[in-house]
Amino acid sequence: AYEKTAEDDFKGNFISLVSRDGPEKEMADLIENHWNKLSDDKDYIQHVNKDPNKFKLRRLEIGLGETMPTTHELTDHLDFLRSDHARFWYSNETDYQMSLRGLLFTDTGPYRGAMQSCYHRECDSKRMKNKGQFASYEFLAQTVQTVIDTVTDLTGGQC
Questions:
Q1: Is 69 within 8 Å of 27 (Cβ atoms)?
Q2: 22-77: per-residue pLDDT in tens?
Q3: Which residues lie closer than 8 Å to 22 by C-beta, 6 or more apart?
Q4: CA angle 11, 129, 111 (to 5 degrees)
Q5: What is the phi/psi pair of residue 93, to 5°?
Q6: What does the alpha-carbon distance between residue 29 and residue 22 come to, in Å, rounded to a whole number?
């Protein structure tokens, strides 16, 4: 993922999809498939985003499995375990250990640009009359449409 981002001059025109190597692979494949399908969706291109190829999906599979890793293994992946998805990966209760599938969709904002100093602070909002470049609504639409299409596919629903 780093090499591809560097090749693109570190532009923030991507979303990262973080998952574990094995447990979420099928779900991550499905999300990636739906992201890529939007490039061929004539209605989506006409009404929502004229250039879906502008935004990329960068997959990052980290070397963790379903069973509770050692403390050393966890510390190797600390940056990817500080978000809500990680609570699904490992629940170590007294009587049992369980692992549920969970993915992290992130624009990596907290790690680059102005968000390095603004993330979850007062300056992290347009409502406070802050100036600066915030989210692209086309980017948001592509992310949301991908999630809708994936959930619809997983549940067997139809739109």
A1: no
A2: 888 899 999 999 999 999 999 999 999 999 999 999 998 888 888 878 888 878 87
A3: 65, 66
A4: 30
A5: -90, 170
A6: 11
